[in-house]
Amino acid sequence: xxxxxxxxxxxxxPELVQQLREQALDVLxxxxxxxxxTTYFKESGVLPRFRAALRFSDGNQLDLDYSxxxxxxxxxxNVGLSVYEDYLPVISRFFEQPxxxxxxxxxxxxxxxxxxxxxxxxxxxxxxxxxKYRHPENMSRAMAETARLANPQSxxxxxxxxxxxxxxRQVVTPLDEDGDIAxxxxxxxxxxxxxxxxxxxxxxxDSFSATLKISNYSSPIAVSFISNYKSFLFMxxxxxxxxxxxxxxxxxxTTCCRDLCRTIDDHWEDLVHCIETGVIxxxxxxxxxxxxxxxxxxxxxxxxEELRRIGKATDAPGWFKQVWPQLRAILAxxxxxxxxxxxxxxHYVGPDVSVQTVAIASSEVYLAVVYDPRDLNLYKVIGxxxxxxxxxxxxxxxxxxxxxxxxxxxxxxxxxxxxxRDGFWRYRLGDVVEIAGFDPSDGQPLIxxxxxxxxxIRLANEVTTETQLRDVINATSDLFGGVSEFCVxxxxxxxxxxxxxxxxxxxxxxxxxxxxxxxxxGQLQKHNENYLKDSRVGKIGVPCVRVxxxxxxxxFREWKVRTxxxxxxxxxxxxxxxxxxxxxxxEERVMYDI
Length: 594
Hints:
alpha+beta, seven-stranded antiparallel sheet
């Protein structure tokens, strides 16, 4: 376990300001010099003022005879904010048929990408695609630090259960002048691409990789090639239970960890039987890797007997600590919408096992790593690989209002804006964070995740944000008897529109659960002035609360994996549901209304 960090400071010394400024200017200089040779830089409709200010003309090599300070001033004054649609026409060239190397080489950054990261696309919108290139080690520190935190090394021969997926949506194969494939480029999740890079597993060698088992992983690599979500979890659970020296469970998101816990709970006898017999069962979606799975499962009657003696000890907290005495940490994103399932996970693992967040990472970037493992929503910005800027949420959405890492203010909320080594320029990430202070060792900002900027529900004149919805659920959770997961949609079944809270409970309903709709209404009025006004004049009704059957949100993730090609373990259920298909699927699983 890493030692605890120093207490954050609330303001920067002049020395730290200068250190942050120099780092940001050095990173920007590298990015401009490196990516000014790319197709996007030359053709982008976002960058004409920047090209003109740099005296750049198409076809000419950019002569960067500027100091780092001069270059930053030119960048600051001449690069506007961008969104994904600004990049889509260029990125789409990867998906043309045929895909010619000459059309996609040096497209966003020099060379061809190692992989193309796709967003989860689970909030109703189409997936977005972000080419990821290989960079020098000094420009890859964020990825390296995230990988280190995600796979801690043991001093006691302990194992890690790491539930990453190596599945991909497709493989892009650019053709050279002779019509031969120049490179195999998987289109996959960011974590899948990282797993391939860290473990040297190119997609063209998947048949060999599926035969391997990494020494400190509990599961063989073959499990990572299972796309069926429930079978993916079952196999990770099986190989984790085989291993008595398990020390950590890494599921990227706490919701996947909760699903893994329930898989062990629901299939306990089947899992123990498999360990006793050493036989991989015939379950959906594993035929292509079953032989490789079977190679690593040996009959273990002693371990099976040990597990049977422990039994399903779910009545009291800490069942998993009996199963794995060395278990010390759950590694999973537990901030924002992923916080609600932490109490259920903590019941399974007990008070002596910590739940720890690893990083804020998205398809676009590795933004920040955990600062203090005791705080599930405190991260340190990584400023070594990309230029990270901050747009105050209360200011107009224009680049001239951007703040830098050395002049952000503690307690203030900002949208993150990125200029990346992979060729994005002042790209709006859409995540809102709050500055919680600074690391006294190097001055990097410490942030708390707040919400997605445009994640909200609106029925009348009110705009109720993701954070406000989470706050009202947290305030009424005791009345529910404990909320495991929830989402919100619009309900037009009555004359007056209202919010519909679709809720999965952690256990039995609370004794006063009938009071929940009125309590939610009161909390919404308290948190949102326009909701208060509109509800008082009859534009918004008292919310309805629809309790779904246990396991619904886990089943929702499995459904998304199966129908949308999402990767196992990384489907996020949005706080606000607008899609008709998603809403109808959830409503079919409603047990009763409150």
